[in-house]
Fold:
Amino acid sequence: MFLSIISFLLILSLLVLIHELGHYLFARIFGVRVLEFGIGFGPRIVSKKTKKTEFRINSIPIGGYVKMAGDDLETVPEEIPKSELFNSKPAWQRFLITFSGPLFSIIAGFLVFALAGAIWGFPEIRVERVSPDSPAYYAGIRENDRIISVNGKTLIQNQSLTEAIRRGEPIEITVARNGSEQTLKADPALFPQEALLVIKDFRGDIGVELSMINGAPVRQELGAYADVLKSGMPARLDFASGETLRGTVEGFSLSEERYALGFYFSTFKPIVNKDFGDLRKGDTLVRVAHMPIEDGVDLSLLAQAISIDENMVYLHFSGKTLEWYSQGLPDFFDVEILRNGTRVILEMPKQEFVKAMTEPNFFEQGFDYWYPENSFQALGVGVRWAQEMLVAMVRVLSQLFSGGASLQEFTGPVGLVSIVGQATRAGLRTVFILVGIITLNLGVINLLPLPALDGGRMVLALIEMIVRKRIPPRIEAYIHAIGFFLLMGLIIYITIIDIGRFL
Structure:
């Protein structure tokens, strides 16, 4: 944890330095006096004073700032001429000085992704498993196909393909198979609402087609029965073939109907990538407790089953049809592996196996990396990669304001410490990409039109340019001060959520 914190602080300091450097350079370009350039807050640890600016590293290593003369309510020293004050500058100059911070962060993010592509290439998008009788199967998509492009556009990340599919329109997918390429036409189908249901202290038998819930006939998808499937409520599930399952609802969640093709992306192979406890690098999982393991899809199902107790059962419905179910795993269970061609059975504590599964790079990747024809093309694809990430971030933030996303889905400093720690254990490539993601986020979030953020200051400058009337600097400073305290409250709220996740 200590190394994770140090890594997080180093990365954050670097990204803040880039962001604040944008403010500093544009302030100097327009002749604004910069009094302090600080990394961190609080009492200074190290400082270097030049003729006009003091450069500081402060004791609280979170964030940073550029303090410009005339940017707040403090008295400006008499020796500083009015022409060097931030508030004396035209609105368009103040707008550009403010915008330069997010701009530098976004440019840095694009450079990081471009370099990552030029150095390591790009992750392949491979097909792990194709569901029988699915649109993907009838389109000719097969296991281990590498998806090269969608509608003629080179595929960089699987999210782009998912978004194309969920529009519900026919698409063309180019795949590489056995050394040759072929273009397939696929028609996404509307898949029904999916429901994940966990029943505690269960008893009885499980069927396939759900017919009744608590004695009431099931005529719709399970979302219509959310009121009777709340946590802690008794549940009786009757199936069309005569089986009945009883117990107490432990958890219930829904995903709405969506267009899909019916295949799974490759993520990990069930092959151990590093020594951990009794498991050795190169071991292939064959069975964990009662669950056979063949591929990465089975690993994801195992992750769901291992997350619940032995007295619980996990049910995955598609509409009214049970797609998959599993009882929770006991505190100790057998793990059957293939080691050097020999089958070996190990007894492992559940807690130890969970810890192994959550260790970065514990399983071998189910995909390789591809590289364009030359470094210049790789840089170009990397820039497009950053562009796609940027668009996705903007979309998520817009959903926050429209109600399509929740603050529960965001993470703050505590969560980032954990993420950075995992990235450092996963390797330099992962750290590099994480740096790109964080710095893009830093730029996008600072563009939000909220007081105390750069976006809020830009909005006030734009208003002034439109109405040609200046908001009194004192009122503007009060607006940003209030916004700062609200922002701190938001950060504290998200931090509490992060701590809850951690615990």
Notes: The domain at 123-190 is CATH 2.30.42.10 (Pdz3 Domain).
